[in-house]
Amino acid sequence: MTEDFTGRTAIVTGASRGIGLAIAQRLGEAGANVVLTSRKQDSADAAAAQVGGNALGVGAHAVDEEAAQRCVELTLERFGSIDILVNNAGTNPAYGPLIEQDHARFAKTFDVNLWAPLLWTSLVVTAWMGEHGGAVVNTASIGGLHFGPYMGMYNATKAALIHVTKQLALELSPRVRVNAICPGVVRTRLAEALWKDHEDPLSASIALGRIGEPVDVAGAVAFLVSDAASWITGEAMVIDGGQVLGDASAFRS
Ligand SMILES: NC(=O)c1ccc[n+]([C@@H]2O[C@H](COP(=O)([O-])OP(=O)(O)OC[C@H]3O[C@@H](n4cnc5c(N)ncnc54)[C@H](OP(=O)(O)O)[C@@H]3O)[C@@H](O)[C@H]2O)c1
């Protein structure tokens, strides 16, 4: 591990398990104070207990503005700065063709996946980063870069999140860097339908021969929020083992 985040503080939303927990663990191992959020306080506490160093769990629905504001204030009280924000909380209640979706599922998907990153970025920039600088990473998806069956609504939120990331990178320049990550299929609960019953054929189709693990994503996030990435902003980094390139098996003899 090359990053050293000693003395820096990170908020990671949606960190009770999966990719968010792995990111929180990685940042904590590299010395950061880490605040982990989840919809439930006890899940956030349990996750914080799995992170080394100074970690704090905060129950905060990502779309709940009061809870988000409270989390930002609590973070500043406890640790004195917010240098890193990872907008990772995500949801996909709208599985299926677009024309079969209703407004409730549309609103929930866009609220959690698109509005919440904007809300948390705004609060953190107002409270700290606007004056002191910082790095924001938004968890998008390769789904935001291409088209696939059943995931149209979710993918639209991630495409919009990539756009918002680039817009924010300009609006918040030069003090705050804003980047997105675009993971491929990663072994988590949210993505179970994408890998659980067909991991072998899926892995065979991916250039690097396997689906992702949460730690694969965490390492890339640690890089993006580190000083080594100090000249990178507005980027949407694909972390997918080559999945977005297409079916690799056709290229092998
Ligand atoms: N896994 C993949 O293949 C993949 C690929 C591309 C992108 N992503 C993105 O990666 C991110 C993390 O997903 P994951 O795969 O790690 O899924 P996961 O293991 O199911 O974790 C989702 C996390 O988000 C939290 N969460 C969900 N809704 C929330 C809300 N309204 N407010 C606050 N927290 C909320 C969950 O916490 P609680 O349930 O405890 O509240 C949990 O910690 C998401 O943005 C997802 O879209 C995943």
Unreliable spans = none
N/C terminus separation: 36 Å
Report the β-strand fraction as a percent range. Answer: 5-15%
Structural class of the helices, strands and pairings? Answer: alpha/beta
Instruction: Report the biggest beta sheet as strand number plus sense, adding barrel if it closes.
Output: 7 strands, parallel
Can you give the mean pLDDT? 97
User: Secondary-structure element order, as H and E?
Assistant: EHEHEHEHEHEHHHE
Question: How would you describe what is shown here?
Answer:
- It is a single chain.
- The protein has 253 residues and is an alpha/beta fold.
- Helices cover 43% and strands 15% of the residues.
- It contains eight helices and seven strands, in the order βαβαβαβαβαβαααβ.
- Strands 3-2-1-4-5-6-7 form a seven-stranded parallel β-sheet, with helices on both faces.
- Helix 1 packs across helix 8, helix 3 packs parallel to helix 4 (103-132) and helix 4 packs parallel to helix 5 (152-171).
- The longest helix has 30 residues, at 103-132.
- The protein is globular and about 55 Å long.
- It starts with 8 loop residues before the first strand and ends in a 14-residue tail after the last strand.
- It binds NADP nicotinamide-adenine-dinucleotide phosphate.
- The site of NADP nicotinamide-adenine-dinucleotide phosphate (NAP) has 30 residues, from helix 1 and strand 2.
